[in-house]
Amino acid sequence: MLGIAAAVLFFIAFLINAADISTNDVFASTNVMLIGLMLLALHVAGIGSGLRTGSSRRR
Q1: Minimal CA–CA distance to 6: which of 48, 31, 38, 52?
Q2: Which of 24, 29, 43, 58 is 20–30 Å from 16 (CA)?
Q3: Nearest-CA neighbor of 34 among 59, 57, 6?
Q4: What's the confidence (pLDDT) of residue 53?
Q5: Residue 59's CB: how many other CB atoms inside 10 A?
Q6: CB contact burial 7-46 (16+ within 10 A = b; e otherwise)
Q7: In whole angstroms, what separates CA 37 from the centre of its chain?
Q8: Could you report the per-residue pLDDT of 2-59, keeping only the tens digit for each?
């Protein structure tokens, strides 16, 4: 799920940069890209990957 959110943020950052849209400093394309990179790093680390299918306890 976080990977999809990162892809959406990368697309928004691309549109801001390609269309040369002037935004305030908070929504600059670099900041949106950095938030996307943070979400991608969390996705790769396994956070937000959904429910686990297997049991974590063994008998």
Answers
A1: 38
A2: 43
A3: 6
A4: 65
A5: 3
A6: eebbebbeebeeeeeeeeeeebbebbbebbeebbebbeee
A7: 6
A8: 888 888 888 988 888 888 778 787 778 788 888 889 889 888 888 876 666 665 666 6
| Residue 28 one-letter amino acid | A
- The C-alpha atoms of residue 46 and residue 50 are separated, in whole angstroms, by 9
Structure tokens at 23: 């935004």
DSSP state of 26: T
Helix (H, G, I), strand (E, B) or coil at 23: coil
d(CA 49, CA 1): 6
